[in-house]
Structure formats: structure tokens, C-alpha cells
Amino acid sequence: MQLTRFTDLGLRAMMLLAAGEAGDKRITTRSIAVGANASEHHIAKAVARLTELGMVQARRGRIGGLTLTDAGRQASVGWLVRRLEGDREVIECDGADPCPLVPACRLRHALVAAKEAFYRELDEYTISDLTRDAGLLVISGPQSRLGHQPDRQLSERTAR
After folding, report:
1. Residue 102 neighbours by CB under 8 Å, 6+ apart
2. Residue at 141 is within a domain
3. Residue 24 confidence class, pLDDT cut points 50, 70, 90
4. Residue at 16 is within a domain
5. Region Disordered: start and end of each range (predicted)?
6. Cβ neighbours for 141, distance < 8 A, ≥ 6 positions apart
7. How far apart are the first and last CA of the chain?
8. Any idea what the CATH number is for the domain that residue 77 is in?
9. What confidence tier does 83 reach under pLDDT thresholds 50, 70, 90?
10. Residue 16 is part of which domain span?
11. Of 14, 33, 37, 156, which alpha carbon lies 20 to 30 A from 148's?
12. How far apart are CA 76 and CA 151, in angstroms?
């Protein structure tokens, strides 16, 4: 099953937040975008949804930033993916050009069962489980692939 980019970014944001907390770092939408190699706009949309779900707390201001809530640390990855993906099918059988095999097709039911098995497996893990390895802390700073701090890179680019 292929996850949407939105879900991918939501999971990356959660993992970077968890790793950043372990490293006692202030995490912002911008720093997550750099760490996840994604646009700040897309990360902001994912973080807004995570905030609606009660997974992330956002604080504005000079000492603001993003933190995981207790619910965010304890939620299963399967639960989170279900909420971020929404209730969509693996393949679209009834779309604008409906499949002529729908009345007698068993594939749709097999795919529903496979999707549920996928989610059940993800239910075995929490974000905390996925970030226990200290290796993730390398990107949680977050730093670019070149090892420079994102704020420094941004200020160098805008100064040119």
C-alpha cells in the first residue's frame, strides 16, 4: 500500500519531534521542513492536522515551537496513519470511470483485507518505538544533508 505524501510528511514530522525532544531541541515547522526535505507549507498543513488530532502542541512566539503531546507519544502508528489517510480505498473502483468488474469482483474485498492487515501491523508501533534508535537524532537537529544548521543556511541564502 502506498501512503499519501501528506501522511508521509505527518509521520516524518512526528518522528522528528520525538527525536528533537530526546535531544532537548526547540523544533519549528521550518526545522522539520529542512529535516524532512519538504516544503514548509506542506509541513505546516500536516502539523495543523496533527494538532487537530491532539498529537502535537504548537506554541507561538519567540520561545515557541512544536512539541508532541502525551497522546502523540503513545498513539499507534496505525491509528495515526488511518487518521491522516482518511477512508480511501487502495484502488478506486467507483470513480469517474467505474470498473466494469465491480459486481463480481473479489479483488476489492481482498484489498480491503490487505489494507486492514497493513494497519494492524502498524498498530504494533508507536512514534516513540520508531525513534528509540539514536541514529535518528542525527537529523533531528535538524541539519541538512551537508551538516549545516538550517537557520544558518537560510540566512546565508537571503543575504546573497
Report:
1. 93, 94, 108
2. no
3. low
4. yes
5. 141-160
6. 20, 23, 25, 31, 35, 149
7. 44
8. 1.10.10.10
9. very high
10. 5-130
11. 14
12. 32
Query: φ, ψ for residue 108 (rounded to 5)?
Result: -55, -45
Residue 132 corresponds to which cell in the numbers above?
A: 528509540
Grid coordinates representing 117 are: 492487515
Residue 1's pLDDT is what? 77
Burial 58-91 (b: 16+ CB within 10 A, else e): eeeeeeebbbbbeebbebbbbbbbbbbbeeeeee
- CA angle in degrees (0–180, nearest 5) for 98-103-106: 100
Closest of 16, 61, 10, 49 to residue 34, by C-alpha: 16
Exposure string of 121-159, with b = 16+ CB inside 10 Å and e = fewer, is ebeeebbbeebeeeebeebbbbbeeeeeebeeeeeeeee
C-alpha cell at 104: 463480481
CB 56 within 8 A of CB 17: yes
